[in-house]
Amino acid sequence: MEFSSNAPVIIPRFPFKRLYDIADCFKDPICKNREYLINLLDLVKKPIIITFHTILKEPSLKQKEVLYELAKRSDRVVVMAEIAIEMLDEIYNVPKEKIVMIPHGVPDLPFDSQVKSKEIIGLKDKLIISTLGLLGPGKGLEYIITAIPKVIAKYPEARYLILGPTHPLVAKNTGESYRESLVSEIEKLGLSDYVIQYKKFFNNEDIALFLGATDIYITPYENPQQITSGTLARAVSMGRSCISTSYIYAKEVLGDERGLLIPFRDSDAISEAIITLISNESMRKEMENKSYQYSRPMTWENVANRYLKLSQEITS
After folding, report:
1. Per residue in 274-307, pLDDT tens?
2. Which domain holds residue 67?
């Protein structure tokens, strides 16, 4: 059985019910089901492009082997950060000539002020700090929460918005324990009026609205090896001033003074960075402009054209 241009193919046995299962399995050093991905590619007789969203700096032997075999079966490998090219070459022995960097895609939205969006969400005249995404351990939101008292002592109009539900896999395994720990910290610090949680899934319109209202966006993630962040890409694409821990993707995207990088697990550094940006509007506006201009090659139209051009190259 193989994929061809003139015959449909039915794969009789594929062990993954959801994409989450594929991603989770690949991170699991003892999961055997990921080898089905290699078997699947062996059936494909057309040119193959693989996009690697996550690249581990310290993979297990099996993870390294599987990624190498997947790359070996592809005509091109796409990554979303420049440093990932070096990682694939040096760690996984993937030839550089096979690797292409195409940035994380984002909608093409206008560079607007926050005023109208703040009015729509009922937070007119507030200074809005936000974090967007699926919640779970390692996201580092607790460090922002413990930074907020110092911020509101100087700027009582500041509000911190936590945007998004618990990650489905986290909810399945540990329920809402992480969010409950955040709520406990919020209540202990007397921040119920200053930290606002929106627990729903955010569609593109929701994201545009709430990031449109945001003055300062923060990703306080705890994993220094994180090599992509869709939410940081979205914030940058809307021209928001950003603060982030110094994980791989943040260092690349927020370099050249497009944002502020801070140490991991450091509430004092977070509060200091927030206060710096609130108190220095010219710095904040300069970051916003730089971020928006940097993100123009990341718009979906540009990204789609890059993939189209790449597809044409390998099929010509």
Report:
1. 999 999 999 999 999 999 999 999 999 999 999 9
2. 19-105+299-315
What digits encode the pLDDT tens for the residues 206-235? 999 999 999 999 999 999 999 999 999 999
- Domain with residue 93: its CATH number is 3.40.50.2000
Q: What is the total count of domains within the chain?
A: 2
3-class SS letters over the chain: CCECCCCCCCCCCCCCCCHHHHHHHHHCCCCCCCHHHHHHHHCECCCCEEECCCCCCCCCHHHHHHHHHHHHCCCEEEECCHHHHHHHHHHHCCCHHHEEECCCCECCCCCCCCHHHHHHCCCCCCEEEEEECCECCCCCHHHHHCCHHHHHHHCCCEEEEEECCECHHHHHHHCCHHHHHHHHHHHHCCCCCCEEEECCCCCHHHHHHHHHHCCEEEECCCCCCCCCCHHHHHHHHCCCEEEEECCHHHHHHCCCCCEEEECCCCHHHHHHHHHHHHHCHHHHHHHHHHHHHHCHHHEHHHHHHHHHHHHHHHHC
